[in-house]
Amino acid sequence: MSLHESCGIFGVYAPKEDVARLTFFALFALQHRGQESSGIATTSGNGLFLYTGMGLVSHVFDEAALARLPGTIAIGHNRYSTAGSSRLANAQPIVIDTPEGQMALAHNGNVINAVPLRQELEDRGSRFVTTSDSEVIANLIVTSPGSSLEEKIAAAMKRLQGAYSLVLLTDRTLIGIRDPMGVRPLCLGRIDNGWVLASETCALDHIGSTMIRELQAGEVVTIDAAGPRSFQAAEPQTQALCVFEYIYFARPDSIISNRLLYRAREGMGRGLAREYPVDADLVVGVPDSATVAAIAYAKESGIPYGEGLLKNRYVGRTFIQPDQRIRELGVGLKFNPLRDIIAGKKLVLVDDSIVRGTTTPRVINLLKRAGAREVHMRVCAPPICYPCFFGVDMATRWELIAARKTVPEIREYINADSLGYLSLDGLIKAVALPKDSLCLACLTGDYPIAVQLEMDKLALEALPIEGVHSK
C-alpha cells in the first residue's frame, strides 16, 4: 500500500559510550520509518559535529563517517519527507546557531501552521536554508521568550499546531519533546552508562537499552550530567495518537501505550475473520506489514495460512533506476508469487490498508496470473477517506480511492472477488485503547484540531473535502 510516515528519531546521553555507533544501530532499527535520508549529530561539550546523507542508514554511514562524530551525546534521524522536498538540504538533524551556542534538532511529525510561522520569523530576521517545518520549529524555539532553553521550548509549544516529537541537542544536554496531542510516539530508556530517547521501543531493544516509560503528551524531558528531569511544558489537549502506528507504521515488536503492536495486529486479523468470513483454501498476507494479521485471520477462520507472496526487501533501496522494460513489470519487482502454493486455490489476501488503490490491483492480478482461482481482499483498516495533515504522505483527498469510490466500486476496480474492510469498532477493539485517545481523522474526518484546508491547494484537481471538522 506504500504509505510513508515522516521519520524516526533517536537520542542518547552516555558519556562512557560510543554514542555515534549506538545511534547508528538505533537508526538501523528505525529504518522502516524513513528511507530518504539519515543523519547524526554529536557533541563532546564544545561544539557540534554533524553528518547527513541521502539514502538508507547503511548507505550514509561507514566507519570513516562514524569516526567524524565524537562525543558523549548524540541525536539521529531517518527521514521521509512530508513537509519539505526530498533533498540533502532538508536532511536532519538540522543545526542552527543560538546566542548560547549551536543547537541540533530532529523532528517526527508535521506542523500545520509552519507557513505563517515561517513568514513571521523571516519578518523578524530569521534566515532559512531548508524548506522543512523542522527548521521553523528550531527557529521558533530559539527566538521565543524565556531565560532558559526549557522556558523557550514551553513558549514555542504554545504556538505550534500539529504533530511534533522532537529530540534536541546542545553542548551539554539532550532534550525530548512530545506535542500536546501525543500524535507520534516517543519513549525514554535506560542504558548502562546513560539514557536514550527513541520513536519506538524496538530501537532500545537493538542497543541493549531498557524502556523506562513513554513521554506524556506535552511533556519535555531534559537529560544532562544530573540525569533526566521532566516538566509539563504544555497542557495535554485532545489525545490523538495516530492509529496508523498500530496498523502500519510501527514495528510489530514495539510497544506503544503499553500495547505490543504484534497483539494489536493479531486482533485486526481476528476481527476481519469474524466480520468477513469466506469460503477459501488459503490465507495470504501482503508482506511484511500484514503478515501478523493474516496469520491471525487464518487461526480464527480455520483456513490454512501460506506464504503465497515473497517480497524482495531490497526493491526501492538502490540508486540504479530500472529501464523501461523492467519498470513495466511494476509490482512484480517487489513481490513474486509462489505458483505451486496458490495455483487453483481460492485465496484470502490480507493487507494493512488501501490508500490510493494503485498497488492493490497489481498484487491481485499478479496472484491471478499465477493461477489463483479467486482472491478475496481483507483490509485491516477501514476505508481511508480523508487526508492527513500530521506527517503522513496523503495530503489531498483526490489521492484516496475510498473518497472517490464506494466499496463495491473499489472491489471491481481492484479486481477482487470480494472486499471487506475492518470496521471502525473492530479496529478500536484490536488496538484496545479508548476511541477518544486516538487520531482517526483519515478514517472519520474528525480532526483533533481545526486543520488548515488551504494546505490542500497545491493539488489543483483536489476534490472538495466536505464534512471535515474539528473534534
The CATH topology assignment of the largest domain is Glutamine Phosphoribosylpyrophosphate, subunit 1, domain 1
Task: List the uncertain runs.
Answer: 452-471
> What is the domain tally?
2
Structural class: alpha+beta
Largest sheet: 7 strands, antiparallel
Bin the strand percentage. Answer: 25-35%
Radius of gyration over alpha carbons?
22 Å
CATH architectural name of the largest domain: 4-Layer Sandwich
Count of helical stretches: 17
**Can you identify the CATH superfamily of the largest domain?**
Aminohydrolase, N-terminal nucleophile (Ntn) domain
Which shape, going by the Cα principal axes? globular
**DSSP strand tally:** 25
The overall pLDDT average reads 89
Q: Give helix % range.
A: 25-40%
Describe this protein's structure.
It contains 17 helices and 25 strands. It is 28% helix and 26% strand. The protein has 2 domains: 7-237, Aminohydrolase, N-terminal nucleophile (Ntn) domain (Glutamine Phosphoribosylpyrophosphate, subunit 1, domain 1), CATH 3.60.20; 260-314 and 322-431, 3-Layer(aba) Sandwich (Rossmann fold). Strand 9 and strand 10 form a beta hairpin. The longest helix is centred in the middle third of the chain and has 15 residues, at 261-275. It is globular. The protein is of the alpha+beta class and 471 residues long. The strands form 7 sheets. It has a 7-stranded antiparallel beta sheet. Strands 5-6-7-8-12-13 form a 6-stranded antiparallel beta sheet, covered by helices on one side. Strands 17-20-21-22 form a 4-stranded parallel beta sheet, with helices on both faces. The model is unreliable at 452-471 (pLDDT under 50).
